[in-house]
Structures are given as structure tokens and as C-alpha cells.
Amino acid sequence: MSELHTVITLDELNIESLIYPHEDLPDGMKMFAQLIIEKTIWLQTLAVESEPDGRSWNVKIECKIPSQVCAFQLAFLRQSKIDGIRLLGYGQIQRSIILGPKRGKIALRLSAAFTVSQSQYHNMPICNILGSNTSSVASVDLDTVHDNLEKELAVTNPLGIWLMHERVLLHLKEGKGRAELLNSLGDLGLALLNRVKQLGRPEDNTKAINILQQGVNLTSDEDPQKPSWLGNLGLAYKNRFEQVGDIADVNQAIKYYQAAVDLTPDGHMNKPPHLSNLGVALLNRFEQLGDVTDLNHSITCQQAAVDLVPDDNRDKPAQLTNLGSALTMRFRQLGDVADLNQAITHHQSSVDLAPDGHKDKSAQLNNLAIALRNRFGQLGDLADLNQAITHHKSGIDLAPDGHKDKPAQLSNLAFALCDRFEQLGDLADLDHAITYFQTAVGLSPEGHVDKPGWLSNLGYALCNRFEQLGDLADLSHSIACQQAANNLTPEGHVNKAGGLSNLSTALSNRFKRLGDLADLSHSITCQQAAVDLTPDGHTDKPGRLSDLGNVFLFRFEQLGDLADLSHSITCQQAAVDLTPDGHMKKAIWLSNLGTALSNRFKRLGDLADLNQATTYFQAAVDLTPDDHPNKPRHLNNLGHSFLLRNDLSTMTEDCEKILHCNILAACSPSGPARVRFNAAGIWAEYAHKHRPASVLVAYTTAISLLPELAWLGLSISDRHYRLLHAGLVVRDAAATVIAAGDAQKAVEWLEQGRSIVWGQILGLRTPVDELKQAHPKLAEQFISLSKTLETTGITTSSTIKYTTSQPTNIDSENFHGIALQRSKLVDQIRQQTGFEQFLLPKSISHLSCAAESGPVVILNISKYGCDGLVLLPDLEGEVIHVPLKDFTLAKAQFLADLLASTVGRSGRSERLKGCHEANLPSTELIALILSELWTNLVKPILNAMAINNPTQNPERIWWCPTGPLAFLPIHAAGSYGKGQPFGSKLSDYVISSYTPSLSALIEGHRQRLESQTELQLLALSQPSATGQSHIPGTQEEVKYIQEQAIGKLDIICLDGQSATPDNHSTPTESALLLAGSSQLTLSDIIQLELSNADLAFLSACETATGSSELQDEAVHLTAGMLLAGYGSVIGTMWTIQDNDAPQVARDVYAHLLQTSPPDPRQSAKALHIAVQNLQKQGKSFLQWVPFVHFGV
């Protein structure tokens, strides 16, 4: 019969201790056993008390072992009221073969009774837990396990170590043997604990400390093994410190390491490692408390260790690394480059001496990289930084997943990438850095001593990216990370100052963006604390002083307190004075000092301040390489100082310097787009007066920077913020190129420079039929990336919530990565034959298609002139230029402000109910506005188009106004005084519509090419939105529409329509209020793609009113409906009356539904008729003028 068919019956287990009494075990202890087969507990016995002799336990068990089982285990556990259940021992049995060493007499005998079919064996021992009667045998057994562990031939866990501890307590009650065993156990425990991901659980370290402490206490100082056991105990404390961060543990580690050094005679082989370990612990304490005495002592110990060890000693690389790290730290503290150079030499030697595959090679490469990065920070040699990044990456590749040092190495690589981004401006470096920082934070468990530092580093990188791109999501996440890091960092910690400084920078950036003075005050408090905590001579002291000077300057600019300005200058001067020549950041601090001095000049008028500021700005420019991202900013500052001086003397020389600085800044290959765009604007402005030949080059440069300024990798709200001042430059550019005789170029520039964000979204939805046919894979990638980018950009603007509970939940880098990937794909597509112009700005020949159904008039308003640019049907590529010499930018802005004050536009309005004409604001001012528009703006354009005859059946015209003209009712222009003849107003000649851009109109025409066969109508009313006044007229509107639609088309009516657009403080969150507190926001609307949608009638207030700060971006609900795919949209410019709206809706739908099927393209004419009906009833301007039509 084969062995597998042998039936084994387990009958009885007996456990016997040869040491009695065993006082280390709890009283009243019971024993029980478990049978384990294939990692499953098949059977557990009842717990039994010891036999009367007090030294054995007889466990009853009866079980047949399944024949297919090749091996099984028996585990023995003890149970007590005091300590609960603990594993005492286990053994493995493999089909009659007993595994485990058999050595002489046993101290703890475990035996089992078996019945084995067809076998003469009946009673056999399971395993020997310890060897015979001396501790040396036990040591041999333990050393065997340790050797196997080092060779990774055995898999052991901390539970096994505590099991062995109990065996020792059973075997030896006292004496040297017991001490040797306890120390051997502790040494083995440390080896095991260093293999787990983060040094095991804290309680595992604590158990190792308890074991070792017992061994040390039992050993006299004369014992030659005592120093080694002291060293092991110190290592256990150091491990727990690294895990928990309790400074008491590092103090204990230093105590025991020092004792190990003191007890080790000179010349002993263990003297160098004890010295090195002491040096490391001292460095740990310095990093916590900042006492330079500890740092110097650490270097002394490390240097002694290195000097005592020959190069062929296997410990030499580690000791060189430790010495290099201590020297690097002293450089950062005291700024002596000699320390840093020595550190790099030692780290390089460590790497060179360590063979490939050495377990410490990863750490050695990481430390060398840190030292090289520090030298780059001091001297600015890019070769050092690139070499550091290479070494960091190599070290990370060598470190296995789960290694305890992996988070720190990732964080160090991220810092180096941040440095290279600051030097070269490559956004990919910064995105990768943020990813690595985030991974480092994610890998570190809660409570880890280094987690606050990694959180702070992540926040630093996010703030850096915000400064580059202006993404508010980055800034909010940065502040959340910095606050979490600050809360986790104890007072007195050496990293406290750096964390406070990073938090201050993030808060000051939020103040500059959002204007909350509380952020600025908090920023100053944090930065002042950071400066106070930073010792004199520390390499970070100048930077923190300069940052403190910056926040004082921000508060001076806000509140005007000269004390803040004086503090700012003092801090900036100190930063410059403390920074040696050749330091890579000296240029930044010189520029900051210049800025503070120029502000004092503007306040007090002392020319000496201005001259000194100019000197510092010039020095900053001279110290900065041409391709450095900071170069444009320094040039901008220098140009501004020349501008201030020019205002005093109007020296031609200064004008040339202003131009020179801004030309260089605008044309710089790197640096923030907003800085370069601003420089291009200043260049253009001064070129008008002093170098006219370059003015069009300046504007060409500015227009070319718009895609970078409003980068697709940003949320819509962030893009809008960056475009706040772009429209003015674009309108100036158009006026200038018109004056130069190129009206076609003016049309192209205006199309590129207004409604930019809407144009980008339309571009993301661009059909790519030709690309699909020629290059289907490229088309598929393009569509996928565009869709993701569009969805992410919109939802980031509208739904992102900023919390501190999960500060590392970041999607921005993915968003940016998608934008970069799409940009590279577009470049690849343009390299294909026939696709060279793919997604490039449209030429005038293409833009002329906007006029296929009637003339389109672009109204450009600028300080350089006001012009009409007319596109006519069937005149491809031709533009009629109409100079409007009697209309100016100042007049347009005055009329827009006058209208806003008259109609009470506040950004949140409700439909007026029950108001009589006498109760409405005076309409005389509106009549004045309409007359001005007619006489000086609209009538000259009609004359230029030869539209001279009023008619009862007018044709269509589209208006595309810019700047403040976008807020004026051009469609209602006319003279409305008593006795005015027919033909005295625009509506006597044409039916007016608006379009936010030519592309939007072209897209509307394209979508209407295929007719809709079955029309449906959805009507919603909301008379009582939460928190709003009751407006019953909305229900009356829907009732009228139902009456008109009966029998002509399907209509769905829901009692829950919009009442009021809300929240103009955030333009993309303007909303239609629905049932309860629900909202349909502009962000929601523009996510829609309704290719068959024809008409949206927004009978609510101010649905066609954009943001006064974004005059050229058409950020309103009506434009949003066009973007969603509606061909035509009816909206309102200001508050409408609740009793007028139903009549307008009834008349509009009555006209539309006259034909079958209804023709939505007649909506403009339908509104024209409805408004005429209001006029015939004698309604005031305030009642009929606000209704407007957008689209085809």
C-alpha cells in the first residue's frame, strides 16, 4: 500500500517541561492544541490544566488525517486570565517524517500518540523546541534560523520571535545563558523587523526593546558581548523613533550607542560601526531639535568611523554615506560649500565602493543625489542637477516596492524635478514631481515621522504649479497639504520653519488671487514664525526673509501702511546681504528688493529709491540666463523702473530701454505666459509712440500667446481669470491693424482674441470626418482626448470641492497631462499631408462663411479708435471697413455704465411683478443712449452697406460687439422722440441678432443644414423657486404656449421652469433656478451637446448679460445655450416684467407655429414682431428693449 493511502489517526498529545517551577509563565495556565491542514484549522481541542506534577499537559485529541494530505501542522497554545491566549509552539509533520532538529536531551518535550495503519510505530515525538541542557545548543539552533533568514530561505514573522521568547523563559530561569538567549532573540527580532515594510508595527519594536533590555540588564560591563547588545538595543530605539517620532526614543538610542562606544576598546573591529551608529542617532536628534552641537558631534563620530576602516571593509560604503549626509546637513545649516564638496566626495566614494546588487546601493545613490542637488542650489550648475535626477531615479529603481525608504527617495526625486522646472520651465517636470510627492505621501502610514514633511513638499509643488498656471484647484490642495503638515509637526521640530514658510507662500498666493485679507494676515504670521525659527547662518534664512518681505509689501499695497513697506525693505535687504555672490537665487532676492524700493519711490517720490531699484533690477537681469523662466519677470520689473523714470523726465533713452526690456520679455522662450503677454502689451503701447514699425510685431506676439495664456490644461474659471485683461490688448491690436489698412487681419485677430474659451470648447467638438478617413487611429485618439479634456475642464470649474480631510486627492496633473498629450497629437496631425492647417486659427476666407444668411457686423472699440467691420454674403474674404470717428471707448464705457445704473443691473434680479409704468425708473436716459447708438454707431454702418430704405419686411443682420459695446442694446438703436418718422430706428431697416463670435454663427449654420423632421417642445415654469419671490406669470407663459401648440407639435409642460439667473460673482455658475433649490448652471449647460436643438427661450432676467470683467468672453446663459448646440436663443439683457413675459412668449410662438412644420429659423423675426407689439401698446424702453436674439 502506498504511503498516501496510509491512514494516520492522531490519538493523544503530551507536553512536558523539564524546568520547574517555570515562574515566568502565568499562574493557572491551561494548554490546548490545533490541527492545521492547508492553512486551515481543522480541529481545536479543549483547554486542559497541567497534570498534578505541574510540569506536563495531556491534550486529548482523536482525529484521522485525510490520506491525500502530505503534510500538516500541530500548534500548541496556552490560555490564562491575565495574558489571554498566546501561541507557544508548533511543529510540522509530513507523512510520518518529523521535521525539525533533533539534538540530545530536550528541555521541553512535545510528544504525540498516533495509530498508523500498517506501521509498527505508535508513539513518536513531534519536535524539539530547544536543544539540550545548555544555552549554547539553543544558540546554535537560533543562529541556524538567523542564517536561513539572512539567506531568505526561511519565512518567519515577529510572532515566531515572541514564541521563541516564551521558550527561553521556559528553558532558562536566570544566568548568563538566559542573557545570551535574550540578546540573540533581540538581534533576530531586529533582522526580521527590518524586513517589513515600515519596520513592522510599533508594538513589535517595543517587544524587541523589552527583550534586549532584559539581556542588557543581566549582562555585566566586563562581558565582551555587552557593547554589541547595547548597540542592538540602541538600534531598536532608533527604529521606533523613525516610526513614531518620539524624541525620547532617539535620546535612548544615543545613550546606548554611546555606552557601546565607551565599552569597546580601541582597535576592536566593532568600534567603527558603534561610532557610525552614534553619529546617525546624533544627526537624527539634530534634525528634530536643530542643536548644532549634535551635528558637529555626529560628524566627528562619522569621520572617526571612516578613518578606522580600510577601503576593503564591507562597512566602509555605509560609513562614508553617513559622513556625507552629516556634512550635507551642516552645509545647509551653515552654508560652507567646503562641507558640501566633501560630502559629494564621500558619497561618490560610497557608491563606487559598493558592488552592484548591494542592499544599500539605492540609499547611497539617493544620498549622493541630495548632495549634488544642494550644490546646484548654491552654485546653479545644471549639470549637478541633471546628475542628481539620474542618481535619484537609479536609486528608486533599485529599491524594491514596499521598502521603508521608498517614500523618502520619491520625495527627493520630486524636489530635484521641482528645481529643474524652476530652472527650465518644463511643466512635465513639475507634473512628475507632484505625482512622486503624492506617491510618497500615499506610501507613508498615518503617524509616520516623515509624513508631515512629505505633505509639505507636496503642497510646495502644487503652489509652484499654481504660480505657473493659475489653477485654483492646485492652490487649494496646496493649502490643505500645508495645513495638515503643520498640524502634524510638533513645536521645536527642525522642519517646523520650512513647513510654516511653505504655508505662508500658499496663503499669500490665495490672497493675491481672491483678495481675502485674513489670508494675508495669516501668511505674515506664518512667515514671521518661520524666520524666527531659522537660525542665523542657515542656508534657508535668506529665502525666508525675502518671502517675509514680500508679504509685508502685499499688505502695504493693500492698506498703505508705511511701516509694512519699511519692514519689507529691511527683510529684502537682509536677504540680499546674507546671500553670497554666485548663489542661484540671488537674482530673485535682488529683484524683490528692487520691487520694494520702487514702491517706496511711488509713495514718497525719492528718486534715490528708484535709481537703487533700477540697479537691483538690472543686476537680477544680468545674473539670470536668457532661457531661465524668471528672465521675463526680471526684465518686466526693469522695464517698469525705466517707465517710472520716464514719467519724470520723458527721456528718449528710457523709452528705448522700456521697449528693449519688454521686447526681450515678450519674446522669451520660457516663463509664465501671463508675464510675457503683459510685456507684449507694454511693448505695443510704447511702440505706438516711439517705434511704430514694431507695433504690429508686438501685437502679433501678444495674439500668439493667447493659447498659452488660456491653456486648455486649466479649468474654465481659471482660463477666464487669466483673460481678464486680454480683451483690451486684442481690441487695441485690431484697431491698429485696421489703421494699417488690413481689415481682414483685424477680423482674424478679433476671432482669435474674443470668446476664447467658447472657441476652445467648439474646437474640442470639431468634427474630424476627413481625418477619420485618412488617419482613423489619429482621429480616434484626438476625439478621445478632446472629449476627456472638455469634460474635465468644465467639471473642474463647477464641481471641485476643496477639503482638508484628503489633501492628496489630486486630478490636476492628469488634466494637465491630457492637455499636453493632445497638444503633441495635434502637432503630429499637422505633419500629415493635407492637414498642415489642422486647428490653426481660421483665415478670413473661412470666417466669411458666417455671413451666408446676411451681413455680420463686428464692432471693435479701442482707445485707438472705433470701427465697424462688415462681412457680406457672397463676398468671400472681403471686409468693409466703416470708421466710426464720433464714437470712442470712453463714450461706450460711459453709456454702458449709465445703462447699468439706470436698469439696476446687480448680477441677481427677479422678474418685476405688478409694476406700473410710473413706478419704473426714468426712461429718458435710455432714450439718450439709444439715440447716441443710432447717430454715431449704427446709422453710419447702414449707410456704408447702402441700407437706406426702411421696410415693413426687413432682412436679417448679425452684430458682434466688443468691449463695453457688448452691454449696450444695439438692436434697439434709434431716435424715439415724438414725431420721429418711420426710418428713424434700426428695427425699421433690419431684424437684429447677436453672435458671440463668427465661429459660433458658422457652427449654427452648419448644424441647421439637415432639417429636423419632427419637432418637440419642452416648456418649464417655476413660479416659486426657493428663496425667490412668487412670479405667477411663468405659468401663464406656458399656458399661452400650450394653446398655440395644440395640434401643431408635441409639447411637454413641467411646472418647474427658471425664475432668475443667479451668482454672477462666478460667471460660469450663473444659473436658472428650478424646482426647490435646484439650479441649471452655465457649467451644466455647456456640457451638453444637442446637435438637433433649435430654439431656447430663456424668459428670465439677465440671461444675456455677461461679466463686466470679461467683456469679450460672452460669459452668460444665452451664449452657453448656443454652445450647447441650440441654433437660436432668446434672452434678456436686464430685468423683465412678469406681466410682459407671457405676452412676448405668446407672440413669439404664435408666429413660429403659423407654418407646418414650424421653422425655428424664424425665431428672430418672431421676437421682432413680439417686441413691436409691446411698443405699440406704449410699453417703456425698460419693458421691450431687454429682449434679444442670439444665433441663426
From TrEMBL:
Domain CHAT residue range list: 930-1045, 1065-1191
One Pfam short name: CHAT
Superkingdom, taxonomy of origin: Eukaryota
Designated name of the protein: CHAT domain-containing protein
